[in-house]
Here is the input.
Amino acid sequence: MSDITAPWVISEGLAGLRSQALGLAEAAGLSPEIRELKPAAPWKWIAAKLWPNPLSAVADAVRAPLPSLAIGCGGMAGAVLAALRRRSMRVVQIQNPRMDIRGFDLIIANTHDQLTGPNVFVTRTALHRVTAARLAAEAELWRDRLATYRRPLVAVLLGGNNGRYRLDRETGARLASDLATMAQRDKVGVVVTPSRRTDPAVTDLIRTALAPSGGWVWDFSGDNPYFGMLALADLIVVTQDSVSMISEAAATTAPVMIAPLPGSWQRQGLFLKPLLDEDRVRPFEGRFAHWAVAPLNDTPEAAAEMRRRLRL
Here is the structure.
């Protein structure tokens, strides 16, 4: 066992990136310190891989004392990690850093990254913080609060526009209609959580459509129901845009359906194909369905590989 007690988790201020790095650290039994990368001008307008001195660009986030291990996620983190490794730190990068892979002790990449190398470990899904223990605890916290909704219970995870896919008013109206029709025709309860990227107009459309059937849409007040919904759902519907949310949903015992959105992204297709082929996920077509599935979660294996390679 090493003397690591508080490795750094570093990323831009994006919840999805931070969650992946935290999930890896926690699965490895580490208690990390979070360092958020906030580059000053002019570096915040320049791709991090072009920074001549990455540590100066994010000086506040990498102030001493330096730990012996840093875990990062995303392109900006990759540039900083490579610079930290030149300071004799061990570094683990999540996602393709889009730079020389020899600058890292370990890279954990998804299949859609199409990255190979002696220091690359490939996962089928994004890393995350969903564990059986967390789901069990959240189920107890939310069981009574979600008991008022009809069963089977469908949890809907909404993303939003991301430059590759659109969840605009028109698309939101179609999704709202499909969810309302499912609730009425299949006699299921529907609970919905938007994300910070979800257009409020889309959220309102879905809330209005579900009101006659007693559906519920979280309004960002009070406790976040996300993990409770994952734990208690009989079916999870996720919008197509989010690799992270699809991966988190697939780590549960519930079947997962993907709500299609206008747009395209080759990497998303590469990510979804094996999940569709293995029948872990199916397209959402406005009807409830249930089929036998097993949780799909590569985070523990990635954490074990990190501990093995770095002798933690």
In short: The chain is about 35% helix and 15% strand. The two ends are 5 Å apart (CA to CA).
